[in-house]
Amino acid sequence: MSTWPFLSQHGDEILRATAEHVWLVAATMALAIAIGVPLGIVVARRPWLGKPILGAANFAETIPSLALFGFLLPAPWIGERAERIAITALVLYALLPIIRNTAAGIGGVDPAVREAARGMGMTSRQILFQVELPLSFSTVLAGIRVATVLTIAIATVAAAVGAGGLGEFIYRGLSMVNNPLIFAGAIPAAALALLADFILGLLERRLRPAR
């Protein structure tokens, strides 16, 4: 059976797997942003912590995805459910671009702007939330954009631990040497990545500070 007839005949299964994939990516990105942005702020404000934080994020990025999923299987609580394993591993992969871009964005704010804010009597917290983060938001968003596309791609491996998603079709297709099955997972995953990249890229350009 060729690819397109297969896709049309199994539309419901593909939609279900796509919804699972989107849920995994959304949960991952929510956690990665909640962890990565504060860590990026710490790196920007405390440069001496940059090496250990970025070093740990870099190290996680170098671990092969299947190996990382396997390492998490015996972990207490995390290893009890496939979704927890998948989301934990995906968060570790997504952190590096978010931390790095957040630190770069805040570090790139003009020092004269900070001094002007201090001269107006703003506290460090006010400067962060009212000056630095708004001015660096497009740079932070660029990191989130990279992390999102990366997560959509790596989330296909989540099927190896039973977490579902579009990777199910890819693994089944590889085991059966069935190209339509492989494409049933690969095409929607690629489309999701392109769509996320386009939407976040558009937001990034719109939110970039005027020069």
Structure description:
Helix 1 crosses helix 9 (179-207). The protein has helices at 3-9, 11-45, 50-62, 65-72, 82-107, 111-119, 124-154, 167-176, 179-207. It is 80% helix and 0% strand. It has 211 residues and is mostly helical.
Summarize the model shown:
The protein has helices at 3-9, 11-45, 50-62, 65-72, 82-107, 111-119, 124-154, 167-176, 179-207.
What characteristics describe this protein?
single chain, about 210 residues, mainly alpha, elongated
Helix and strand sequence: HHHHHHHHH
Strand composition percent: under 5%
Radius of gyration: 20 Å
User: What is the structural class?
Assistant: mainly alpha
- The number of strands is 0
Cα distance spanning the termini: 55 Å
Number of helices: 9
Helix amount: over 70%
Report the principal-axis shape. elongated
Query: Which consecutive residue ranges, at least 5 long each, have pLDDT under 50?
Result: none
Main sheet characteristics:
none
Mean pLDDT: 89
How is this fold's topology laid out?
Elements: H1 3-9, H2 11-45, H3 50-62, H4 65-72, H5 82-107, H6 111-119, H7 124-154, H8 167-176, H9 179-207
Helix pairs in contact: 1-9, 2-5, 2-7, 2-9, 3-5, 4-5, 5-7, 6-7, 7-9, 8-9
